Amino acid sequence: MLSFKQFNESKFSDIKPNKGEWVNIPITMFGKEQEINKELFDLIDKTYQYIGGHVNYKSPEDLPAGKDGNDVIIWYGIDVDDDPEPDAIKATKETPYGSKGVLSATDGSVEAKTRLVLRTMEKLNTPGNYAEMSGKAAHVMITRHDVPVVTSQADVEKVLGKKVKWIGPHPEGKYPEHPGWYIRSLGGEEHMKILLGKPNI
């Protein structure tokens, strides 16, 4: 016999998504005891473990709004293989300047990564969508998809709502057509980033 907890658990497959199609994940599905929190956090944990984890999502309980609980997040997921679990996810936050991408994660499979890259590229080329990026993600968007970049310090600080340590051209001479690099503190550590996409400035 199912307990009330088991009966009430929500998971990604409850959305009944079509294979290979991105779907919105309703905020009402999330909860500390919900399976969907664990499914999505597993992808986040795998994707961000090489940098010590995502700064705002350290456990399943941090979903959906982050460990500070202040962000209004919209979640999307896609299932691309035979099992019913999500294989790639994206999270965005609505701001005065548009939809800001705040998180992307996959199960590590080639198909999931490909779908995520294509989704991200499409969004960043659409007015009203933007994201801060660094490392591998920024490299892929810049070198393979030539997405727009915000190159003005004043515009970057306006969109982010905070001051940054401006660099401009990449310090190693990379990406000469994308001189929008800066450093800011996240989780007590400094990170070099770039603002990509088309925010409504």
Describe this structure as you would to a colleague.
- This protein has 201 residues and is an alpha+beta fold.
- It has 2 domains: 1-124, no CATH class; 126-201, no CATH class.
- 26% of the residues lie in helices and 25% in strands.
- A hairpin with a 2-residue loop joins β7 and β8 (189-198).
Looking across the biggest beta sheet, what order are the strands in? 1-2-3-4-5-8-7-6
Please provide the count of β strands.
8
What helical percentage do the residues reach? 25-40%
Rounded to an integer in angstroms, the radius of gyration calculated over CA atoms is 18 Å
Query: So what's the overall shape?
Result: globular
SS summary, helix count:
5
Q: How many domains, in number, for the residues?
A: 2
Q: What is this structure's SSE topology?
A:
Layout: H1 4-8, E1 23-25, H2 35-48, E2 73-78, E3 88-95, E4 98-106, H3 110-124, E5 129-133, H4 135-145, H5 153-160, E6 165-168, E7 181-186, E8 189-198
Parallel strand pairs: 4-5
Antiparallel strand pairs: 1-2, 2-3, 3-4, 5-8, 6-7, 7-8
What's the gist of this structure?
With 201 residues, this protein is of the alpha+beta class. It has 5 helices and 8 strands.
List descriptors:
201 residues, alpha+beta, 2 domains, 8 strands, disordered N terminus
